Amino acid sequence: MTSILYALARRLALLLPSELRLHELRQLLAPGGHSLLLSQRRATMIVNRVRLFAFLFAVLTPLWSLIDLMVFNRDLWISLAACRVVTCAAFACLLLLYRPNGKLFDAYRAIAILFAIPTLFYIASHTLLGGQHHDQVSAAVATGYAFLPFVLMAGLAIFPLTLQENLLLVALLLAAQLIAGYLSWSTLSWPSFAGGFWLLILIAGVTALASMSQLAFMIALVRQAIHDPLTGVLSRGSGEEILDLHWHGAKRNDTRLSVVFIDVDHFKSINDEFGHEAGDNVLRELARRLQKSLRQSDSLLRWGGEEFLLIMPGADLKQARQALERIISSGLGLRPDGRPLTASIGIAERLADNASDCRELLDLADQRMYLAKQSGRNRIIEQLSRAS
Fold it and tell me: Which cofactor does it need (predicted)?
């Protein structure tokens, strides 16, 4: 069974961007395993596309009233026009009041509102039109209202969504279609309704693949953009962004946040005596050992050269120190001559150090790391007056 599932996963991978790795396929299914940066950038893209969608609907929705005016009676036109005005105002509010902030919950809320507005309009208009007698021309125009669910279903394709998110939105749109059918039960042509419902399901399948393909490209691009090519850990640029996110989260929730500078001792001598390739191997092995020992919430990044930064949300100075001592006790790796690799380490914590911003927190950890080097290396310092 395992080999069959693996073969199916490999087949699925062939349909997706070649840059996507096999272990990343699960990220297409649900958002739970997404990195902080991927979630932030995906949330920003979703909100921006929601606003684009809202702008188009806000402009196009009232224009159709001109067509309605030419084919429907006065009372029906007034009712439909009122629905269009309310719908247009709702789209305008969504466009003007929503701004991307990188929070996935807000992105979910935006896309839910976006699809709720036309769905409610569809149900209302379907009810109004179903109670009227139409001639050949007005019946043709009324039929155009029935295409709205198909437009909405196809519109899902512009969002980078996981399979789980797609299924939830698809279920809501299909439920709206069933409600509209129920409200016009007495006049409904069931063969036509069943055919349209099946077509909606087919479109949902295509849009799900399109959304997941967009997400796959985003996963690959974000991975390439935020990771250090040598060690595979986060790069400095992406690390600064992550630290800023953690800082604002810790400040908002009044929680702990520790940062740790790790600098390899006597690294220059490795490059001078054994060459840069040997030095690269040492850094790769150190990064591997550090990552293996970290919590899922911790972030490790290469700050530059032989220097690494560790971000530990929720950890105080004591917890950060204990974690580092545990990592050091298991070994940081070996130098090319077989001697144990050591490092000078400085720790700073938001509350304990009363840091005013993340830059000050970084500076404190950096100062303590340099003090560790000046004090003889191979030690941890979490206070300027204390070393071990």
Answer: Mg(2+)
Domains of the chain with bracketed CATH: 11-225 (no CATH), 236-381 (3.30.70.270)
Taking the model in full, what pTM does it have? 0.70
**Helix (DSSP H) and strand (DSSP E) numbers for the chain:** 14, 5
Question: Would you state the structure tokens that stand for residue 373, as one six-digit string?
Answer: 């080097």
Rg of the Cα atoms in the chain: 29
Measure the CA–CA gap between 375 and 291, rounded to whole angstroms: 27
Nearest Cα neighbor of 57 from 108, 92, 107 is: 92
List active site positions: 306
Query: Which of the four pLDDT bands, split at 50, 70 and 90, describes residue 387?
Result: very low
CA angle 25, 26, 28 (to 5 degrees): 75
Q: Which of 149, 140, 165 is nearest to 42 (CA)?
A: 165
Instruction: Give phi and psi for 79, each to the nearest 5.
Output: -65, -45
Contact in structure between 215 and 42 (CB atoms under 8 Å): yes
Per the listing, tokens 């991927």 go with: 38
Name the strand (E) or helix (H) holding 281.
helix 276-293
Instruction: Give whole-number Cα distances, 57 to 60, 102, 108, 323, in Å.
Output: 5, 24, 19, 53
